[in-house]
Every structure is written in structure tokens, then in C-alpha cells.
Amino acid sequence: MSTLKKLSEAGQSPWLDFVSREFLNKRGLQKLVAEDGLGGVTSNPSIFEKAMGQGSDYDSSLQAFLDRADADVVDVYEHLAIQDIQAAADALRPVYERTQALDGYVSLEVSPYLAFDIAGSLVEARRLWKMVDRPNLMIKIPGTADGVPAIRQLIEEGMNINVTLLFSLDSYRAVAEAYVAGLEARARAGKSVDRIASVASFFVSRIDGRIDAAIDARLKAGAGADEALLKSLKGKVAIANAKIAYQDYEQLIAGARWKALAAKGAQVQRLLWASTGVKNPDYPDTLYVDTLIGRDTVNTMPPKTMDAFRDHGTVAETINQDIESAKRVLADAERLGLDLAGVTADLVVDGAKQFTDAADALLAAVGAKRSTFLGKRQNTVSYDLPDTLAKAVEKCLDHARKDGWQRRLWKGDASLWTSGDESKWTGWLPAAEGTQVDARLLSQLGRDIAAEGFRDAVLLGMGGSSLGPEVLSLTLGSAKGAPRLQVLDSTDPAQIAAVQSRIDIARSVFIVSSKSGATLEPEILRAYFHAAVVKAVGADKAGRQFVAVTDPGSQLEAAARRDGYRAIISGDPAIGGRYSVLSAFGMVPLAVSGHDVAAFYERTRPMVRACGPSAPPAINPGIYLGAVIGEALKAGRDKLTVFASPKLSSIGYWLEQLLAESTGKQGKGVVPVAAEPIGAPGVYGSDRLFAYLKLAGDDSRDLDAQVDALARAGHPLVRITLADAGLIGQEFVRWEVATAIAGAVIGIDPFDQPDVEASKIKTRALTDDYENTGKLAAETPLAEDGALVFYGDAALKGDGSLKSIIAAHLARLQAGDYAAVLAYVERNAAHEALIESMRVAIRDARHNATVSGFGPRFLHSTGQAYKGGPNSGVFLQITSDAAKDLPIPDRRISFGVVELAQAQGDLGVLRERGRRWLRIHIKGGDVAGGLERIAHAVRQEV
Fold first, then answer.
1. In three state form, how does the secondary structure of 512-573 look?
2. For 141, how many CA atoms within 13 A lie in the half-sphere containing its CB?
3. Is the dihedral of CA 67, 73, 75, 79 positive or negative?
């Protein structure tokens, strides 16, 4: 007879602390049952990590699962693990039946992240119990102070419980009381108690590991008269502790309370000796089995220990031997100050940490395989980072893992950032899963609009309400038969007129998009186009051409109801504008463009899951990127420069707002650089981090080669590849998570925008003053040169010429600064080309980063970083008289005046914040001519 099988004769059941797919497939479990009298199996994340993460045994099952449907990382793990647990339970079912539910159990652990969460443990245990659906399952619950109430409740509910992480006698007693109390409550309710099982897993070798280390330290320091006694205690304290726990068990079952339960058929809660593999090679390898054999106990052994005991273990009832000696060992340990109580308390915390570390490793391994098997369904990323930055990122990710950033993010834990009101602003996370909108309703709205023959759709919005939809429009286009979407986010009269000239007012639908419903620009654009539609089709029909997207209870909602809008789609007040693209603010324009909203979410979902709360930072695309951005900034690389292949080119403008508004505050933050043409590696300083987003199939060979050159030169580079344009939603998710995480790395609130509000306040004061007086406040120019009028510091004047003023302004650029060209003029290709030529000239000659923006669009975007971020910007503001102004219905003020007021308000805040600035105003309305002169001067003077 096997030595292991003889354990049963002594009243102890041998269990195996191991499970794997290969082991089960080869019928290894059935062999141990038949030959060794195996009574059960325990599992934990460390065991599954070795099984799932190393080798290919699970690959076919994983691939088949993902071919049917994608899932969160933890769900993928559970799918694989539960298959093993069910298979193990089925193999042990004969043991369970033969022993009348005393033995034959397989244990599955609740998430170790819930070790100190009562409510979470209860929910998780019930869910796993239902999923496995086997009577011989044991749910593992940590025996922490928080776990004890959960254990009592679950026993009352009739579940089998394996209590883990028991080290101290007090903890064991509390757990034993919870078991008894749970059974008593069940009995009082008239429910059976005869087939409920529990084990109390008392950890052994870890105690000796800590105590022995303390003894060695004392001996090394010189123990004097205590030396011999200290040496005699090595390898003894853990066994003594376990033996006294067994004495407590015997006392419990001898009591009246237990006898009353036993009369009803209740089973004892057996002590299970865990952590019985020897850590010290000087000790016999069967030490923690040989010395702890007794009735109504279990010893769960790792395979190595089981093999050793089978070969040379000794079977004898030892648990009740030398009890007085065990008591002396504990008394001596206390007298010598070895602090067993402190050691066991620390081991609970350390044990929980080891379990979470193992779970992190497990989920990371499963998540990495998930991403591999998803293939082109999930956008890919790679990083080329200098060693110092790579090490800083690795350290940051490890800190994020230990601190559970992925779980804290999804819980909206404000302490991840500044402990302010951040928890009120994380509605964008569930929105990414498609919970904020009714996808079928929106798609029907789009079909109805197309069916009624509308040819164009114009979105009237600013900032987050416009930049995301613009990316969707330019990347995906409009479906066949659906209106062509145009985004209007400007108060420039020429730009408004250009949009109006391209549409048939009577056959156009207008999406008025404003979270607050009181933002100036969407409101006056709404008024302007509503009046135009009324003129074209009549007041009674005009409302059918308008859709409002706004937060509930807003001023816009009231106006939309009054004017009979076709639809009013509500936003979520818990989502800030720049994080809103995957909410109604992005999905309504997508639907009106003829796209299937539900299908879009489905294609976005792999990245949501990859960035989810169960994905550890090392494999979490959003957290990883956030760590790179944050650590790069801390290393002085605060200019994140975005390149994109042709069909993705518009995403840079969305990223500008997301990054600048979120991180640019308190004198620090990321300065995003979009639409700056790529240059040779030598024109860039050490203040850059580069990101390259590429669409597979785009004609980007030249750009690819230039990006490769940057990487070879040692510049830090993030490369992201999309298999097709329909996966653009995944990048919204990745970058939103990354931005929020970068805020945590930097130590700021990534959801507020205090300096954007400052600009709005100044603009409002100027426009209100105009409504009252009919004019804007007078300004004193620095100089004039033909049609160009200059405003700025007296030190810039020189001889008053364009050449000298530009030269003086550019001379203020220092290493690490960035040059900004902010133009309050029509945004068109010709103007963009002239501004681009200035940027390239400055960058190539001075090696400074350059940014640009068209006002007032950038005010709701990068304007936050310019005013609240680092004082490293040198700003050239360009304004112009309107060649042909446009009136605003029922307002004294015109669009041209509003645009000029916005420019003045913007400049006023820059001036207050001590920024270096120059304003050039183009008189007479010849914008192209004025820009050409300015661009020529910049190119000459750099």
C-alpha cells in the first residue's frame, strides 16, 4: 500500500496542491486517487499561472473561446480555469460520494484582490459557485478579519468553504466560530447541515521561515546566554503553533454547541495544513507532513512534497504528541521576543500580497495570450525607448500593479489622482462599453434621416463635442446614401460662410452639440443656422432638421424642446467633453453618417477589455502608454509629437485636446504636437516623445522610413497599428485611459480645465461689454507695418518693422521651449500650409517644438496647456479684420466681433500668466496676403 494511502488510516486526507490541463488530460488525478488515496485538490493563481502562462496546453481552448467571442482578461482566465476545476471535480466525484461528502473536493479561490472586501467576496463566491456548478467544489476565502463574516454567511447559504491564510491561533478560532455560527443559523432556518464541508487552511512553513530568519539575525548579533535556546527553536515554532491549533479544534468538537450540530449530521471543519513544502534545505523534506498527522485533518502537498512522502514518509499519529513541548516552544518564543503574533499578522498581509502578485502574473500571462490570439481584432503597439526611460516605465508599471491602478481607475477612486472630485468624472469608462447610448435608437435615427433625403449633416460644436466626431468623419466617411458630415467649430465668418456655401440648407440636418448647453459658440451657431433653415423651409418645419446632443436639463435642451427638434439625445454629466467621443457626443454624428453604432462598439470592445480592471499594467495598453507619457514628462520629454498615416491624420487634433486639457495645469503637463511635418532626427531636441499611428494599407512608406530613422537615432517612439479604419474607436479608449493614468503619474487631476474657464470668462466680459456699448475696448498697438498691426511688449518693437519684431520675438525661444502660432482666421488648406511653413522653419533652425491652432477652436483644446501648463511657450497670435462679417440673430454682436473678443480674451490670460507673446493683426481682411508676409518674415528670421 502507498505510504500516502496509509495517511487515511491515521485519519488524515492527502490533498494535492496542483492542477493543470496536461495533468488532467493524462488522467493523473485519477491515478493519484486510485494509487495514493488522494482526497482533494487545491488551486491558486500561482498554480494556474505556471499552467496557463508557460507552454501551450491551453492554447487550443483559448483560441476556440476567442473565436466565439472576446472577453475581459479575467473572464478568459475563468473560462480556462473553470474547465479545469470542473474536470477535477468530476474526477473526484466518486471520492465525494464514497466518503458521503467528507472528501473529494476541489478548491477555487475568489479573487485575491478581495481579501479585505466582505461584500466583494460574497458576490464573487456566489458567482463562482454558480459557474462551476459542482457539489464537491470548495470556495477559497481568506481568513482575514474581513473574510470571517463572509465565511459565516456563505456557510449559512450552504456553500463549501476552504478558509485560507490562517497563521495565528486567534484567526483560527474566529474562523471555527464562523463555521459553527453559519451552521447554527442554517439549522435555525430549517435547512440541512449534513453535506456542507469546510477546511481551515493553517499555513505552516512560512512561519518558520520568518521566525528562523529572526533567530539567525539574533545569533549573528550575539545572543549570549540565549544562544542555545534560540538554536533549539529553529524549525519548531510552526509545528508547535499547528499542534496547539489542533488542541483548540478538539476542544471545540467536545463542546455542547458542536455536539448539537453533529446530531443533525454536521461535518467537522477539518484543519488543513498548507504551505507544507520545506523552504529550508537543511530540514527533512517531509517535515511538515510527518509531524502533523492526525484525525480529521488534511495535508495539501505540492507534487514534490507528495513524491517525497510517498518515497520515505513516516505514517504515525503525531499531531497529539509532545503537546507540552509545543507549549514550551511557544512560551520560549514569546519570552525571547520572537513576536509570533506580529509575525503571523505580517504573514496575513504578505500572504494576501503574494496571492495578488500571483494573480497579477496569471492575468498578465493570460492577457498576453489573449492579445496574441485576437490578432488583427485588437490594435497593436510597440515601444522603442531609451534604457533610462524604459527602466523608469518598468518601475512605474510595477508600482501601478502593486497599487492596483487598473482596478482603482475603473472604480473611480479619486485617491489615484488628487482625492478631489475625480470620481464624478469617470463616466467615460462605462460609456466605452456602449452603456451611455441606445445604439439601436441612434442607428434608427441615422436611417430615418437618410431616408428623408438629407444630403448633408453639419455638426455645430466646440472642443470635445467636435474634435472626436471630426476624427470619425474623416477616418470613416459616410455610409452610402447617408448625409456627408461636416464639423463647424469656428466663429470665423469666412469659415461659417464656406460651410454654408457647400450645403443646401433645405436638405441639411444640423447636430447642435454642447454638454453644458450654454457654450457661446454652439449657441450662436445654432441661432444662425436655425434662422437660415426657418427662412428656407418655414418655422413649422425647421425643427425637423435639428438634433440636440446635450446634458440633461441644459439651456440647449430647453431651446430644442421649444423649437421642436427632431431628437434630443442626452449626454452623461459624469463625462467631460474631451472624454466624450464614445458617448452620445460621438455616436450621434456617427449614426447620422450612416454607421452601425452597435457594430462600432463591438469592434472597439477588445481594447476596452484589454484596458479593463482585470488587466495588469504590464499588459494593459492604456496604463502602459500612460506610464510612458508620464515618465517621459518627468524626464523632461514633455512634448508628445504625433504622426499618423494619411487616413488617420485627423486624430492628432483630438489627441491635442485630450492631452493638453487633461495634463496642462499647475505649471506642468504634456504639450501635444500635432500636424508638425516629420523632420530628420537631428532637428529634434531631447524634450520629445513620439507617437506614430498607422493604418495598415495606407500609403505611408516614406513616413515609415522617417519614423524608423527617429527610432534608430534613439528618440523614444510609440508605434500603434490599426488593421483597418473601423478600429479607430480602440484608440479613443487607449488614449483616454493613458491620459488619465498619465495624470496619476504626474500627480494632477486629469478631468478639470481651470484655465479654459479663465479664457471664457474674459471673452464673456468683452462680448457683454460690446452688447452694451457697441464696441470692444480700445487697444494700443506697438507698431504698424502696412496692413500689419503689432501688439506686444515694448522690447519687441525695434525699428517697428515686421522683420525686426519677428526677429525679436523668435529670439525669446530657448532650449526646451515651444513656438506656438495661433491664428484667428478661416481654417483652410492654404492658411494651414502657410502656418506649417512657419513651423517647419522654426523647428529646423531652432530645434524647438512647434504647435499651431485655429481660434477659437484651440481655446477649448490646447489652450489649457498654453495657459496652465509649463511656461515654455512663445506665442504668436494672428488676428484679422473680417472681409465679410456675419450677423448673429437677435444679437448686437457679430461673428467677427465674437472672434476678435475671443482672441483678446485668450491673449489677456496669456499675459496674466506671464507668457511670452506677440499679436499681429491683419487690417483690411486680406488674410492670405497677411499670412504670406508673416510666414515669409518667419522663414527669413529664423
1. EECCCCCCHHHHHHHHHHHHHHHHHHCHHHHHHHEEEEECCCCHHHHHHHHCCCCEEEECCC
2. 37
3. positive
Digit-coded pLDDT (tens) for 53-82: 777 889 999 899 998 889 999 999 999 999
Pairing of strands 717-722, 380-384: antiparallel
As a whole number of angstroms, the longest Cα–Cα distance in the chain is 108
Q: Rounded to the nearest 5°, which phi and psi values hold at 453?
A: 85, 15
Instruction: Indicate which residue of 140, 243, 369, 639 is catalytic.
Output: 140
pTM to 2 decimals?
A: 0.94
The neighbour count for residue 146, using CB atoms within 10 Å, is 17
457 forms beta bridges with: 485, 509
140 is catalytic: yes
Per-residue model confidence (pLDDT) at position 52: 85
CA distances (Å), origin 764, targets 279, 377, 877: 72, 47, 20
| Confidence at residue 474, expressed as pLDDT on a 0 to 100 scale | 97
DSSP 8-class letter at 267: P
Question: What residues in the chain have per-residue pLDDT under 50?
Answer: none
Are 175 and 143 a contacting pair, CB within 8 Å?
yes
User: All 3 cell numbers of residue 85?
Assistant: 476545476
Other C-beta atoms lying within 10 Å of the C-beta of residue 323:
14
Contact 648, 470 (CB under 8 A): no
How large is the angle between the packed helices 59-68 and 340-374, nearest 10 degrees? 60
Q: CA distances (Å), 65 to each of 69, 79, 272, 564, in order?
A: 6, 8, 35, 49
All 3 cell numbers of residue 470?
471630426
Residue 794 in 3-state DSSP?
Answer: helix
Q: What is the pLDDT of residues 213-234, one digit of tens each?
A: 999 999 999 888 899 999 999 9
Which H or E run includes 601?
helix 597-610
Other Cβ atoms closer than 10 A to 201: 25
E strands, 333-435, are 380-384
Total residue count of the chain as it appears in this document: 942
34 torsion bin: left (phi>0), alpha (psi -120 to 50), beta (else): alpha
* Helix runs in 426-463, H state only: 428-432, 439-451
pLDDT value of position 549: 98
